[in-house]
Write a structure and sequence with these properties.
The protein has 173 residues and is an alpha+beta fold. The protein contains 5 helices and 6 strands, in the order αααααββββββ.
Length: 173
Amino acid sequence: MKSRLFSAFVLLLTAMAITLTGCSALNKTNSEEYKSPGDLAKERQAEIMECFINKDAETIKSFFSEYVIETYPDIDTQIDKAFNFLDGEIISYDEPFSSASGSKDRKAYGADTRNIITDKGTEYKISFKGWLTNSKETNKVGVICIKVIDMTDEYDYSKNEKENGILYIGEPD
């Protein structure tokens, strides 16, 4: 009887130890490792903003998909034009908004930063679109397009009424 009671007690302690350490370690690992597609888009947008602030063309180019690099051999020139498009130095901007859609095999993602203000009082919006995953066209995984919009003037940019107020890097949408 004592051996059964002792075995049951050891089994109970073992089960509790596994439950308490296993679950908390598992949850901690999952929460630290997993990032939602929306979070990944926000991170990429923050990195893009840092590249614009520091005028880091090489890093911004590294975000683009293999497809864009091959299709747009003037990507370096496009990046330089985008940096020069900004009138002044960026002094403030809002937190990024992000979105993601699609299945795990073909997940699109993107984000934008609004109310980007320069030291000369000009306002911009910078956004990107890309593929987080694309099992059908793996060379398109990465950023496909970065769009810089001069928001200072009062135009309806959704209708592209002012072409010179919008600058694209990569594949225009």
